[in-house]
Amino acid sequence: MTVPDFGFELIGTDRTARRGRVTTAHGTIETPAFMPVGTAGTVKGLTPEAVAETGAEILLGNTYHLMLRPTAERVDRMGGLHRFMNWPKPILTDSGGFQVMSLNSLREMTEKGVTFRSHLDGSKHELTPERSIDIQRMLDADITMVLDECTPHPATREQTASSMALSMRWAARSKQAFVRRPGYGLFGIVQGGIYIDLRHQSVAALTGIGFDGYAVGGLAVGEGQEIMFQVLDGTLPALPEDRPRYLMGVGTPSDLVGAVQRGIDMFDCVMPTRSGRTAQGFTRRGKVNLRNARHQDDPRPLDAECRCSACRSYSRAYLHHLFRSEEMLGPILLTWHNLTYYQDLMAGLRQAIAAKGLDDFAAAFYEAQALGDIPAL
Amino acid sequence: MTVPDFGFELIGTDRTARRGRVTTAHGTIETPAFMPVGTAGTVKGLTPEAVAETGAEILLGNTYHLMLRPTAERVDRMGGLHRFMNWPKPILTDSGGFQVMSLNSLREMTEKGVTFRSHLDGSKHELTPERSIDIQRMLDADITMVLDECTPHPATREQTASSMALSMRWAARSKQAFVRRPGYGLFGIVQGGIYIDLRHQSVAALTGIGFDGYAVGGLAVGEGQEIMFQVLDGTLPALPEDRPRYLMGVGTPSDLVGAVQRGIDMFDCVMPTRSGRTAQGFTRRGKVNLRNARHQDDPRPLDAECRCSACRSYSRAYLHHLFRSEEMLGPILLTWHNLTYYQDLMAGLRQAIAAKGLDDFAAAFYEAQALGDIPAL
């Protein structure tokens, strides 16, 4: 079997929204796509079979966690992350940069990269653009992300510009370090905070270097949905049409709908999985807290329109009981549901774009969400 | 569809060992059988589909936990435990007595029954033979257990005799309270500690009352395997051949093999599930601690002969990583494996009895267990 080259095909558009397909060494991804987060080599609480059943075609793995445990070298010796975690489909890994910045307080930044101590055993580690690319190669990521500095919010224009410039120098070094293999791609990351002209400078720098895809970074860090959408409105038209666009770490269902309308192709977020572990269920009529006593005698499924196991076979009363009893099956079933909800939302968006009916789809989405949960019995 | 009557068919024997079939309202159970424990309406960490895939044909539910949360009344309103937890096959419930004694320190025993306060909300509850039977009816258990007093070990002959006598009076009241329905059965529990003559008195009392099956209680409470087997040797010949025999709360794989050789038909134990959550895996070559560093680079499955998902698709290195990272998937996969191991052991015992080759099977079992785990790579 010959491995297809990494690529992106634009299948259709509806105004600025895009329906596409990413081809990788481990399979294709229909876009717009949502990537569940498999932090430490597992989507918390689910078998890979269950993750695939939700409709997910690609997972995200966290370089920071994996480099510390079990280590990239060990994953490499075990045949790569796909084989290690039994997920034969595509995997995207982040660069590790964001989590070093947000999770590790014992770090030191220089032009060269960032050094830090492991929170697990105190061992010293260095993350440079070159090292991050090499780690992601050992993990066998289909999509590798460049190392960047995630500019904090709020930041002044000067701080943002200087941070973005560093990220662009790191992007050039990342490209240099990336060893091209058939079916494997490297994505650059647009920075520039809330300053559209800096975003344009960043796009120009990245497209000058040339990447297989372009991520928008530094959003969903507290600026709010309206500003995030403004930044997308200002930035996305500058990106090449023939490359996938990935909005990192986003977001809520309405974030996804709005970002798809503006032309984003890929997303990742811990929201459906983390919420699933804390009794927060996403439904076509908004978010539901299953610990709430109103569910304790409710024989109805969480979301009657959902095709997932949790909704087909269990009542709200049972899910409520599992969370109150702190039983593992609660997080398992609700993570399963939330990921199914997210994947079905993406499938709906893809169909709507293909049918050039995205505005109607979005209107119906917001209308249903505004209804709020079904009334208690 | 007419519901078959509750019954037991003795299909074959090999010396004192028995191959049989229990018929209940929710299906049949091939014996000797092992029942996974679904304490609070869930086998911890597994979906019912996964539990069924291990080969389990019947689950045990804990009356004590369920009566406190979500309450038997609520389970009843939700259509019974099978429907509530999405387990359409047979369920056996215990009486709640053992767990009131072992888990609840705010209890008071009288001839009538036991009163106690809930550890969840301080509410006051009474567990009498009649109330226990009624709770188990609301849970819709295919097999109901009589309320008994589990005699502590060690206990003097006098303490044991007096406790056993109380249990026999409660057994008579339980039989009186049990409302017979097609496909539903009531089991008595033989007590008498390590005193064979007291065990015989207990058997005589119970068979005088008449039950659909007979459990042996008060074992595996610290007396050791040798004494447990002696009690079985002394007790089982006194039990009627045409009723199933259930050894409560037992046990290790070698406990199961020895007890089946002596004529036990049914078992329950938290060992495979609890061990699965604490990184202890059962294999054909004994117990393995997956947190041990020797596994961190081992690409081999936990048990190469095992058909379970965990052994077919994952390495010891991956399972080790999951437990070290405290990922839910570790307990999930290892519980799945351990239950599969237990079910396959029971299937092997059933086949061996049918082929009248149980002694050879047991010899091969002990030989493999004595080998110890495969050497590190």
Features:
TIM Barrel; homodimer; 42% helix; 2 domains; 377 residues; 8-stranded parallel sheet; alpha/beta; 16 strands; 3-stranded antiparallel sheet
CATH topology category name of the largest domain in chain A: TIM Barrel
Helical region count of chain A? 15
Rg on CA atoms of chain A, Å? 20 Å
Averaged pLDDT of chain A, please?
Answer: 97
Which regions of chain A are unreliable across 5 or more consecutive residues at pLDDT < 50?
Answer: none
Question: What class would the helix/strand composition of chain A place it in?
Answer: alpha/beta
Q: What features would you describe in this structure?
A:
The structure is a homodimer of 377-residue chains. Chain A has helices at residues 48-53, 63-68, 72-77, 81-85, 97-103, 129-139, 157-177, 196-209, 225-235, 253-262, 271-277, 309-313, 316-324, 329-354, 358-371, and strands at residues 7-14, 17-24, 27-31, 33-35, 59-61, 91-93, 107-109, 114-117, 124-127, 143-145, 185-190, 213-216, 245-247, 266-268, 280-283, 286-289. Chain A has 377 residues and is of the alpha/beta class. Chain A folds into two domains: 7-269, TIM Barrel, CATH 3.20.20.105; 276-371, no CATH class. In chain A, the strands form four sheets. In chain A, strands 4-14-13-12-11-10-6-5 form an eight-stranded parallel sheet. In chain A, strands 1-2-3 form a three-stranded antiparallel sheet. Chain A has a three-stranded antiparallel sheet with strand order 7-8-9. In chain A, α9 links the parallel β12 (213-216) and β13. The first copy, chain A, is globular.
